[in-house]
Design brief:
Strand content: 5-15%
Shape: elongated
Radius of gyration: 20 Å
Structural class: alpha/beta
Helix content: 25-40%
Distance between the termini: 52 Å
Number of helices: 6
CATH architecture of the largest domain: 3-Layer(aba) Sandwich
Strand order of the largest sheet: 3-4-5
CATH topology of the largest domain: Rossmann fold
CATH class of the largest domain: Alpha Beta
Largest sheet: 3 strands, parallel
Length: 191
């Protein structure tokens, strides 16, 4: 959103995949008309269900996104007759871990599928954690079924808890569920 001020939003209609993006749009463009948001899930599928696809024929649509990602939204808009063009506005990078391995989390929340590739790269660099278990065996909280399948395909073998929706509230609920399960587990109980 850093360079978004260069755009002129006056004659544009805006949609966002989630509430955080909508809030950022409103911060940069205080006079922006209401931002269309998904009412089901905060992902491409939810956004497509919310968009008036029938009215988008011949409309120019810019998809502001990262430098990588699925083409699903673009392909669906083109199939509906829109002229859709992805505009990469940020780059996804894997940040190196600054913490010693013994301070790494034992449960990971994956809020974006691209994070799995980063976690897999970290697991390859550090095959075992301080407890002798590899990162590939740590429990994961994921945002949707697609991310769960991707985790398994990348070799993650630990317990995977899927949020019932890809949004913040559902991730918090899944995290609470996973923590309660961990506390009830015989391996984590104190004698």
């Amino acid at each position: 959103m850093h360079f978004a001020h260069a755009l002129r939003p006056l004659n544009c209609r805006w949609a966002a995949v989630g509430t955080a993006t909508a809030a950022a749009l409103r911060e940069v463009f205080p006079a922006v008309p209401p931002v269309l948001l998904p009412t089901t899930t905060q992902d491409s599928e939810g956004l497509l269900r919310a968009l008036p696809l029938g009215a988008m024929r011949s409309q120019q649509v810019w998809i502001f996104r990262g430098d990588t990602g699925r083409e699903h939204l673009k392909e669906a808009l083109i199939a509906a007759g829109a002229r859709a063009e992805p505009i990469p506005v940020y780059q996804r990078l894997c940040a190196p871990s600054q913490a010693p391995i013994e301070r790494w989390p034992t449960l990971w929340v994956i809020s974006a599928p691209a994070a799995l590739a980063c976690l897999r790269a970290l697991a390859d660099q550090h095959p075992t954690d301080a407890g002798g278990r590899g990162l590939l065996h740590c429990p994961l909280i994921v945002i949707n079924e697609r991310t769960e399948h991707q985790a398994r395909a990348l070799g993650f073998t630990g317990i995977i808890t899927r949020a019932h929706a890809p949004d913040d509230a559902a991730l918090v609920q899944a995290l609470a569920q996973a923590l309660l399960q961990a506390l009830a587990s015989p391996q984590t109980r104190q004698p």
